[in-house]
């Protein structure tokens, strides 16, 4: 099996495409099951955030896996596969490992260094384990991806400024409000993970008073209590929109929460940070007098999302080393079925020779036969020990995949392809 990652992000698609691709949490399990039901897809993990949708998969062939995954995403989004292909990036083999590690480290995020991606990857991995769509290869990849991300954040200053999509959006909002947000009143619509991050970020930025609304008032009330904000019933949304300077939208609604009609009734200047995908602000509301909408598209083109090179150099070095470590694990794993086959061949030879000996020397007692058998097995195990340990070490080094093939050739070993595929995913470039 081979690693293949396919996705679309703020780099390759605008928010109109992303909101069609986004996978709501209740739909993740079904999509994972549809992916692993495809002929070329053996394992799958799906990551869906406000600015990226990605599939990490173990596939039995590049072109077949690519076609299977593209077809599932096209069916899910309603975007024809030929059109969707223009928005997708594809990473195969070693490149897929590198991409995964760069994502978890925050290097591929819209706001480089943001830490939220780690939680999103963890949730994606958990969802895959729940439906058993992650096998040995993706279990190892995701565990190492999370570890590398934690290491990057712990050992470097890439996230020292606490940057996130919310802080980037607030920077843009500050420009529209004279550069200072202190004392500006704000409303947060949504009490999920992004809503919670928004409340925390606005509080640290001096924005206030803060009000929070959510279709589930209980969740809004808990979040408001944690930050000293005020929870308001969702039914009072229209009234509160007329009273605040800034609105942060971060719901999981599949339909716009702020329709053109609702925003037309505000009757005052209003800045809306639409951090939801699908968008919470209706597209046809753009251009309303006094309304400023800051969404994923506008943030993607903002220089605030680009870090200084010095902030990422150390993380890039970590990623380079960790990719090689992972590839070493793969190369070392590839030799395992061959070593097992070699030991099985040795055991078969010992057993065959014992049967011949017993037929020639029927006078041997059971105890004598057992002694001879144990001695032969010990000799074989001692002869094989050092070579098999050494070949595992050599196989883990760059170019080590040749050792498995050499052993199979030298000893005429029959290693079933299915066994090799299960234990040893091949890693390489596009095919």
From TrEMBL:
Q: Does the keyword Protein biosynthesis apply?
A: no
Q: Which domain of life is it from?
A: Bacteria
**Enzyme kind, highest EC tier:** oxidoreductase
Q: Name one GO molecular function term.
A: glutamyl-tRNA reductase activity
Residues noted as binding NADP(+) in the record, renumbered to the chain: 190-195
Q: What is known of its domains?
A: Possesses an unusual extended V-shaped dimeric structure with each monomer consisting of three distinct domains arranged along a curved 'spinal' alpha-helix. The N-terminal catalytic domain specifically recognizes the glutamate moiety of the substrate. The second domain is the NADPH-binding domain, and the third C-terminal domain is responsible for dimerization.
Protein name per Swiss-Prot or TrEMBL: Glutamyl-tRNA reductase
Q: What is the lineage of its organism?
A: Bacteria, Bacillati, Actinomycetota, Actinomycetes, Micromonosporales
- Gene that specifies this protein: hemA
